[in-house]
Amino acid sequence: MSENLLEVTGLQKHFPITKGLFKRQVGAVRAVDGIDLNVQAGETLGLVGESGCGKSTAGRLFTRILEPTGGKIVFEGEDISRKSVTQMRPLRRDVQMIFQDPYSSLNPRHTVGSIISAPLQIQNIPTPQGLKKAVQELLELVGLNPEHYNRYPHEFSGGQRQRIGIARALALRPKLIVADEPVSALDVSIQAQVVNLLEDLQSEFDLTYVFIAHDLSVVRHISDRVAVMYLGKVMEIAHRDDLYKNPRHPYTVALMSAVPVPDPVRRDRGQRNRVLLTGDVPSPINPPSGCRFRTRCWKAQDICATEEPPLVTRLDDPDSHLTACHFPVVDDEAVAGRTPAETPA
């Protein structure tokens, strides 16, 4: 087992809601409300969940782009959750981020050369063969032409712009890269190219990824372990194959049943039923008591409203399969993708 590169304990991020002339706080949006997870050196941890569950906020907390409200972030055994901007600057060499929108994350007034060379200049990284040569080598590394050095972001396609963002993240040779939905804005064919590029770079430079996405098929392809988030909480963490074959949390089962099946025969014969959740997603301003998912869960009972389930292993699960549920789904339900009411007698 590899040692943990990143450990997160009780991590919280609450955005205050203010009102009136004096900006009096009347509430808070609990975007991330106490998550516990770890990322092992050299692995890819997938972070999935529906829109608004707090995935991107969590990624920005891991890189300390956002200040945490509470909890602890430990990187290589060092607590970085309360470090100032000045104290964080040396750590930026080891922790980088790839952003979701490859155009808005690149300054349109700067050339590709100045964008990629900025981290090297800020961190005073020596370049024996010159700064321009170092940037051109990075461009070649991500599949771009060295002659693109003097071009501007608007002259590139979406996939090429994402490659520029990857080159910028790689400039400092970091240990951990948080990729916030890096392929969601790209065509399917370009998605495959970027995902393959990330995998090749991981093997070449021994990188560690936190891969944030809502496309479950992409996450299954690239991830070693997968963490499922819902309304600011982590509901389940397991190895990729174990999670996709035997999801334990009802929310994970519902997510898996929503993945399109590229097989019309299987779809037409009704061999796979959708788990249709009732009700709306609760507001992160006032989340439900107990289990966050209980208002939409078909297995909810009285204890779910009064006691929040801990993220722990179950007796019938491998040690690496963590589930935050009082009544985890049994194998028959998980495999069939059916609720008990939908299962035929």
From TrEMBL:
PROSITE patterns: ABC_TRANSPORTER_1, ABC_TRANSPORTER_2
Domain ABC transporter: 6-256
Assigned protein family: Belongs to the ABC transporter superfamily.
Keywords from the named record: ATP-binding, Nucleotide-binding, Transport
Recorded GO MF terms: ATP binding; ATP hydrolysis activity
SUPFAM superfamilies according to UniProt: P-loop containing nucleoside triphosphate hydrolases (SSF52540)
Protein name in the entry: ABC transporter domain-containing protein
Record-level GO BP terms: peptide transport; transmembrane transport
InterPro entries attached to this UniProt entry: AAA+_ATPase, ABC_transp_ATP-bind, ABC_transporter-like_ATP-bd, ABC_transporter-like_CS, Oligopep_ABC_C, P-loop_NTPase
CDD domains (alphabetical): ABC_NikE_OppD_transporters
Lineage of the organism: Bacteria, Bacillati, Actinomycetota, Actinomycetes, Micromonosporales
